[in-house]
Request: fold
Amino acid sequence: MFIKISLFNIWKYRKRTLLVVFIILVSVFFMCLFSGMFDGMAKGFYDNMLLESGHIQIHQKGYKDSVDSLSLDFLMDNVDTMINDTSQISGIIHVEKTINFGAILLKDDKNLTISGHGIHQDTPFYDNAKKNIIEGDFIENNQTIVVSSEVCDLLDAKLGDYIFVMVQDKNHSAWFQDYKIGGIFKSQSSQFDTWNFFISHQAAEELLDASGYTSEIKILMKDIKEAIAIAKELQIKLGPMFEVEDWKQIHGSLVIFIKLFDLYVIFFNLLVIIVSASVITNAILMIQFDKVREFGTLRAIGLKKRQLFGLVVTEGIIEGLVGASLGVMLAVPLILYFQTNGLNIGEMMESFGLGSSLNFSLEWDSMMVNFISGILVAFGGSLYAARVSSKRSIINSLHFV
Reply:
């Protein structure tokens, strides 16, 4: 009966009801959109940054305190046995060695300071480059180099051209080698594109006169939650001559920033809820004031206070369900669009490894929380209106103007 009467009242006072529903719709819509954006930022961090750095890294002692992360003073020797042993540990799915070094790229009268990476052709790391090849292939052989389209523009080079790579080798002597451009990539981050190039690990060893050496060992875990425990286990096993860091230590400040996302979302949602709740409460009160004499009549023929209270609350819940549903229904397609195409945010987030395009992420648990929040906002507003309506006496209600 409550539902039938509530639906009748909603239709009868549909203009003001539409206002309540619209406010709930807008509130839930923006909460969903905001959640999708921050969920996308967090997902982008884990998908991009961790697939570039790995879940665990092993370096020579002293690397962590080094001012120059590209210094060759902390190269590790004879690590193949260590890599093989580490690969056998349960939970580890990939172990790979990498050489990182500073270099100058030269072509004709143009040059560019940049960082180089000696990696394996089938590496699961550096997806920013590997999955965004627009010309050629990713590290064809030991005589080719992979650079970005931006580097090609800066050096006036193209696929198939030769570029000189000048470095300071392991013995601090200047050396250079020419490589053919075998692959060109273009990622979403111009900062990444202009700062990185790639050659094979073997080519890097020859270029740096560092045969058998490597800068770091990167490890991927099947379950990221196991990384901290495995890192501690490896540190004990390898001893004080090596530094083992898990992903939280590698990205310390960024991890804190990502964790703050949840607080940002909660703060924003609370702000939206407070503002919308006040407006909704006033709108529902205005609707109830229009129905005071009707309520008085219902009370006079036997409707009890608690039944009147339930009637008003039922109307609020129905309005909340409709508004929250519409809010989610409108937000989901937009989130899915930005999840696929991304939102261009310029270069302000590139320092966090998110690129110039931010891809949203549709997380149904977040959508459900926002949906319930919209219903609760309407429920809270109707509670106050129900309390005011049910406290009014029958005589005052019948004489209310």
